[in-house]
């Protein structure tokens, strides 16, 4: 497996993923589980964070030193499904700023269409945690990474609950430096571009739009 792909395999995650896959899981529960899994993926993505500073504090017992994260990453959502991951990500990184990319693949022109792009003014040089629950064809993910790199960001780490092997291969063909954190790699996609067995359309299930 590509060393840039981190599959976070854990019994609790497998348990929660089963509920996401289940078509009978209500939208409220679906959103909560996406939030919980997102927390774990962010935890893993931050494991090797090097930007820390030491500060002097006092506990109720004694003076000591504590560490604080500095140069926090920017959490970026690929709308709309990525928005379902934001609460989980920002609960782990409440001091992080947030960006939004609205982009989709148009089946008629066979290309991606961007309709919204909003980033913090100081994003240049900052590392990014890029959130999208699913990577299938990876076209929108690659387009989002392209745009972020145009802004001169630092390291990009992708946070995605399910991915396809085809999508991962495509991401790393164009962006071999990008790390991907996921719960599972699906072996198939159907003719509509959905992961199999997958969990359906994450945006529809998050926001009850279908």
UniProtKB/TrEMBL annotation:
Keyword terms, alphabetized: Allosteric enzyme, Glycosyltransferase, GTP-binding, Nucleotide-binding, Transferase
Cofactor names: Mg(2+)
The keyword Transferase appears for this protein: yes
Top-level EC class as recorded in UniProt: transferase
Domain of life: Bacteria
EC number: 2.4.2.9
Pathway stated in the Swiss-Prot or TrEMBL entry: Pyrimidine metabolism; UMP biosynthesis via salvage pathway; UMP from uracil: step 1/1
GO process terms (BP): UMP salvage; uracil salvage
InterPro entries hit by this protein: PRTase-like, PRTase_dom, UPRT, UPRTase/APRTase
Catalytic activity: UMP + diphosphate = 5-phospho-alpha-D-ribose 1-diphosphate + uracil
Pfam families to which the protein is assigned, alphabetical: UPRTase
GO molecular function: GTP binding; uracil phosphoribosyltransferase activity
CDD domains: PRTases_typeI
Ranges for domain Phosphoribosyltransferase: 7-209
One GO CC term on file: cytoplasm
Cross-referenced Gene3D superfamilies: 3.40.50.2020
Family: Belongs to the UPRTase family.
NCBIfam families hit by this protein: PRK00129.1 (NF001097), upp (TIGR01091)
Function description: Catalyzes the conversion of uracil and 5-phospho-alpha-D-ribose 1-diphosphate (PRPP) to UMP and diphosphate.
Name of the protein described by the UniProt record: Uracil phosphoribosyltransferase
Species of the source: Bdellovibrio bacteriovorus (strain ATCC 15356 / DSM 50701 / NCIMB 9529 / HD100)
